[in-house]
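Ticket #4471: structure output looks truncated?

Reporter: J.K.
Steps to reproduce: submitted the chain below (564 residues) through the standard prediction queue, then opened the result file.
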Amino acid sequence: MISGNIVERIAVGGELVTKKIDSIIEAGKEKIKKLKKLEIGVLALINTVIGFNMSAEPLNMPKEYSENITVKGQEKDVFDYDFNSDGINEKVVVTYNIVDNLVGAVVSIYTNQGGKEILTYQIAFDKKFDILEFKTMQKMFDKVKEYYPEYSKNIQPNETRYIKIYGDNKNKDIVFDKIKFNNHAPENTNNFLFIKKGSSLLEAPNGNAVTHLGFSEKPEILFEMVSDTANSPKWYFTEFTKKVSTNVSKKINKDKDGKVIAENPTTVRGFIAGNEDTVSPRGFYWDKMIKKIEIVNKFIDTTTKDNEKLYIITEYKPLSRDKPSEKDKFGNKNNQSIIGYTNSKKEGEIINIPDQTIFRIIGEENNMLKIETPFYGGPYFIEKKEETYKQVENIKGKVNKFVAIDPHSQTEALFQRNPETEKYEVVTYSYVTTGKDGWGSYETPHGAFLIAFTRPYMTFTRHAREGDKTLPGRSDLTIGGSARYAVRFSGGGYMHGIPVGLNFRGSTLNTGAAHKIGTYKDSHKCVRHFDDQIEFIVGWINADSKIKDRDNTIPEEPVIAVVL
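Returned output as attached by the reporter:
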């Protein structure tokens, strides 16, 4: 809670503004820190998300400014500031609240139009901020001022624009100075705009073209903007370093410090219309990945501390003949899965629980096991069949190794938890290709899966043609090719290298499959990587494990794949 009984005059960008503030108290527990000389914009512009980011809707502020403006459930502060240095102050209304040490705020800027103060800009951020991250708050406030000349371009009288500024997706629990492999690590590690079709980068909304962006290029999103004018599209303000080659499979050159060496770089900024047919907002959502990982580790920690057992689903059936099914509410089909029922009578809604899913047993009813899972929640009821599940032996407490896969953005990151600091160190990250639904193919399943094993290769099948050598028990299939290295994480879902035909010769970087990495879902279920990327991953997963099963290596230390 913020009380407003202290008036401080604080310098912001050389200008004096009035700020009422005492202190911020940590979510009903203890006073954490007294803020001194906190800039007005910080506490406001740090909060841009309440009611805006979460609901994707702006705050309901009046079109014309008045002294009695209020927003239910939020504090308010008002000050004057000359954003465009024209000698005329804009009226700034900051609304904010603090929940669980997270500050959310919206700043509304009223400009003088014909003697009236008219709502012209309402600015939010893409996330809330921890109240102690002062540098981050100030950085975002600086962006509000920095971008003002951009989001004010070509604005019409009485028009209101709603802006969401994008920040850093990292958080204090993630360490980036321990990266072990970066051959395919892109420079932009936050929010980007994936170009589906060739698009023009414009100097202003509906303005002249600055440059042309081709398929698969990924400009960084700085802010997005919508207008209250009729038929106005969403606009993305982006930054892009144009290079000679934009081939996603091309090895990136880096200097001794790991920085990407751009090829004849030309960095430009501009607007791109947010047409769903031509662009798609994506990103390396580090904070989202860690949030999911922490859900898994909390589940594991609670289970082991209660001296309860952990289990996994064992429904791996190579070359199985699955019948098509509808997706459940988590987006999973029944491929190499078991059914989870909402009650022990097998009535009501069901979910598909994929192979290698982690769970715990919390009871038994009508000869059905009552279970809970980290991602799908529960309770659910599964049939008590010993061949469909088994106890996990090598998880004794919190897990330290995780692979996080984001099918939406076609990105992946490996995290190593430091038990002493409780922080997660990024080991490597890259673009990938995940599965798509189709005839004989499936989307990569969503969930938390204990990695079963690794191997130095993976073969894949195709439908047999006349003269082909078919597989035992499957006269309709033959070996179609292979990929280097493989990590089985769920059913027939593998992380593996670039798939090629049996007679392939040459570099896999020149294949169509390599060129598709980081673009669209395209595999049959698996997660495709560049060959050297998956080779590193296999080595990291295996560590010094000596546990062998034919060509397979079973990790001694548990590694969990989290698919968002």
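Triage note (M.O.): checked the attachment and the full token line is present. The chain has a mean pLDDT of 84.
Status: closed, working as intended.
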